Amino acid sequence: MHLNWRLQRLLHQFRHALITPSRNPRSAVVLGRLLGAAFLICFATGLYSHLLQDPPAWMSFPTRPLWLYQVTQGAHITAGIACFPLLFAKLYAVFPELFQRPLVRSFGHLVERATIALFVASALVQITIGLLNTYQFYSLFPFSFRHVHYALSFVVFGSLAIHIAVKLPVIARYWRRRDSYDSEGRVVALEPDPDAEFDAPDELRRRTGLRQNAGVTGRIFEWIDRKPAPEPPDRRAAVSRRGFFAATAVATAAVVTLTAGQSFGILDRLNLFAPRKNGTGPQSLPVNRTAKAAGVLESATSADWRLTVIHGDDSRVLSYDELSALPQYDSLLPIACVEGWSQYANWRGPRLRDVVALVGATSESGVRISSLQQHSIYAVTEMQPDFVNDELTLVALRLEGEVLDLDHGYPARIIAPARPGVLQTKWLSKLEVI
Amino acid sequence: MSSPTTTSEAVVIWRGVLIGGGVLLLLIGGATFLTDVPAMRYPAIAAWLAGAIVLHDGIGAMLVFAVTVLLRRLEPRIPFVVIAIVQAAAVVAVIVTVIVLPEIVKKAIGTANPTILPLDYLGHLAWFYVAIAGVTAVSVVIALALVRRGGPASRRTR
Fold this sequence. Notes:
Helix content of chain A: 40-55%
Order of helices and strands of chain B: HHHHH
Radius of gyration of chain A: 29 Å
Strand order of the largest sheet of chain A: 2-1-11-5-6
Shape of chain B: extended
Number of helices of chain A: 13
Order of helices and strands of chain A: HHHHHHHHHHEEHEEHEEHEEEEE
Strand content of chain A: 5-15%
Distance between the termini of chain B: 36 Å
Distance between the termini of chain A: 75 Å
Number of strands of chain A: 11
Structural class of chain A: alpha+beta
Oligomer: heterodimer
């Protein structure tokens, strides 16, 4: 029944019908550059965040600028959101490639197509689960977001690197605008497009005599072809192409400016769609995990609450009043969440380094920090010496001049510069010098 | 201007570096899946990956294809530039909706505390549509004025 040749014809008909001024290699290169930059920002900042949360023993991290994590994680989330319009536009520009014919030319071609399929699938999943995670829409994930997002980042970037390698000659060829268009605004093609003409003679016609408009699908595609997309020098072609880029630019600008206010205070007034809003919550500061959710309502408000500080055999047990009697300092620091939102606040309390010095900690000491909360992977975290010794790192007792709200970690919490919010441990119970 | 058919030495070197780096990253990703993600989760992850392709290439892109073809084919006596502006506005609206819709759903289901999804996303989205409609209308008026005032080249965009 000439199934193979019927398939070849169908692929040709799709490719022909999909011809439009914005679908060309130059568009793919322009969008690919922007998308590549966004993915690079996401990958680098994501890796940084991951390492901060799970640091190898030999690695140290800067404590300045104090807004470092706010900016890296804000950029991570914002660039991730920008990936939606950019990825959709890129996939739109290269959509006819899905209908390549023959479907597979060689083993190398099969590997190339499989890599692209892997890239498209993993990139779409990566940005989707990233977005849904900021909405805390965990019920949609039948897996651990953190582990899958981390593992997929290597898959996305690995398959992207291979894709770029395969397309390198095309990327180089269409890198510059002036090399891409002729004097009439046509994209300079590398080779004649076999799908440019609808009624091109093909193998099926040679074998059976059937023309391109035969059958139901043939008639549909012929109907489409009766009004083809405009081509240069028809000015409508330029309008179509520019409209496509304008739509991509406006969509990207819209999703960025209407969400980035959750990370960058300067855009707060434009924050219409971000999952977090500055100034909301107890003491006008958002909360990720409440005291109730953490199961610390009783233990955190108990009159028996004490902070235990341990260094080997030496230990001290400090009451809230004793912590308040230590020299108190103010730090203006952001809470910067892994989910991208950040907000500055005025914190007050003793310096962490002063508290652990009570049990003989030195400037080389790190600290293992335990919370009253039990069922969380962040119930016990470790802080490296650079952060412990930083003059801005506090055992915070007060927020904006008031006693800490229970949901912000009462009676005492950690606040340090350039650290993810999940490591700013709330409801402290124990500090162990390591 | 480099020729499309010749592959320079630099391209060969960069290709080697990119493919080597890419394979290495894929191996790290694969190893991370093996060590960090329980095997019982693999089918769900595979379903998400396959679902992404089906949803995008099979449904989303095909829908866009059908709409653009229908618009072009059934294009009434409307100037081309107007159709282009309306299409661009629709694209912006759809992309913003794709990002905001899950927020509206999640907010309706309920969140762990009131500071998560605290805004009126449905209301904001409605205002956003109004703003898009307004900007689109103004753009159309300006574009039509320019087309009418323009010469033969502008008239061809009608």
